[in-house]
Amino acid sequence: MKKIKFTKQHAMGVLIGLVSPLIFIPIVIFLFSWIQNHTFGRLWSDFKGFDAMQVKVITVSLLSNLIWFYTTLNKEYYNIGRGIIIGTLLFAPYIIYVKFF
Description:
Layout: H1 8-36, H2 40-49, H3 51-61, H4 64-74, H5 78-89, H6 92-100
């Protein structure tokens, strides 16, 4: 098996994988507030205060990385795609910690 070296493209993918969900968190909360017929401020305070709400919102916001992942695959930027996967997986320890501890 060939060893893969970490390049600038991988780093850019990791950065995209980490920043994209953080940008999409307010959008997801807005969609939840619209669907559940609550105010944005109430759900935002729930997000900041309750661990269960944080896990739900972050998990849904991680789906935004699929857009970037499939775009990079279609343009054959495989190293950026690998970085996006790594960036997405970096959220896993936090989600597991909040969910179970």
